Amino acid sequence: MALNKYIIERDIPEVGSLEREQLAGAAAKSNEALAQLSPDVQWVESYVAADKTFCVYLAKDENVIRKHAEISGFPATKITPIRKMIDPTTEKDV
């Protein structure tokens, strides 16, 4: 089964102020939810800003991402499907 790539924006007040141990606890909670939904969703990485996170996920569809949010307790404020990727080497691909 091919998984699609998504960016999930999560509004979490003061998440950027959390200590490393608190972030580790959040990651553990997310991993527990992912284990319940496997193999339909995978967490790639997350970027933590002041009051939100931006998470990169591979998933069967948006519904499984919403289910992960429900199980984990972390909001999926905005889910954006990724259609293509570019990077600094893209200009050399043409």
Question: What can you see in these coordinates?
Answer:
It is a single chain. The chain has 94 residues and is an alpha+beta fold. The protein has one domain (4-83): ORF SCO4226, nickel-binding ferredoxin-like monomer (Alpha-Beta Plaits). The protein has helices at residues 20-37, 62-72, and strands at 4-11, 41-48, 52-59, 78-81. It has a four-stranded antiparallel sheet, covered by helices on one side. It is globular and about 45 Å long. The model has no long low-confidence stretch (mean pLDDT 96).
CATH topology: Alpha-Beta Plaits
Q: Tell me which oligomeric state these chains represent.
A: single chain
Helical run tally: 2
Bulk shape = globular
